[in-house]
Design brief:
The complex is a heterodimer. Chain A contains 5 helices and 7 strands. Chain A is α+β, with helices and mostly antiparallel strands. The N terminus of chain A is likely disordered. By secondary structure, chain B is mainly α. The two termini of chain B are 13 Å apart. In chain B, helix 1 packs antiparallel against helix 3. The chains are: A alpha+beta, B mainly alpha. The interface between A and B is large, with 40 and 41 residues.
Amino acid sequence: MMTNESPANGLSLLSRLDRYWIKRPAPGPVLTAHERLICISTEHWIKYVFPSLLYALLMGTSAFFLYLAVLAAPSIHGLSLFFTVAALAVFFLFHHWFFWFLLAESQAHIIVTSRRIVYIHERLLRQEEMVEVSFEKMKTVEARKSNILQIILNYGSLDFESKAKLTRVPHPGTLAMRIEQAMGMI
Amino acid sequence: MTSLLSSPGMIAATAAVFLIEAASLVALVVGLLCYRHIVKSHREFLLSLHQSEKEASRESVGFLFWLYLLLTLIIVLLTAGVYIFHPSLF
């Protein structure tokens, strides 16, 4: 994810919903003259690991509540009902949280053109994030793998002169090379 | 099924269970509609970047959409079924 974020577009829930239900005019041309697309990349799959483990843990918690409900049923009926409702509430709450996270994260893109790098990330019912780094202002990019996991799984960060940073970039060395080639075109 | 309404506790629990199930279906529909909108706008954006139709079509509602839909529906039906037809379990 990029650290220098654009300001929030939607302030209230209703204004966030607006962008889903109100049909907006089609945007104009995205690429400027003499600009060409170099590559489109997604973020590394490592971003899914911790939420998936948390999801599994919470599903286990929900199953444990359900087990307690069945155990308590013959003796304390009220407690059994409480655990049943708690199990369902925990399950559905985190089931939807997990899938909303997956759906939104699958739509995060890093787009490199010959003039700029664009990071777009829209979240369901939350503000969208779109960050643009122009190569006219930045001339160097540094690829970094800071720990053993990043070296093994081949992901890392891209640092744009300490002004903007992209994390969880797959194959950062290769991408940095392509970006530097693009920077050289300006 | 009559045992679902046999006591005030059971009535409250039944109401809570169905409220959770209904809220879950609402969350599913809202989530999927928003996701479809995002995929569509990203697809248009990629096409405007001179991507070929084939490459941009990778931006389609795919595996995750159907996994979320089917998994949620199966779980809602299963939990509601167990609660309605085997209330003695709880």
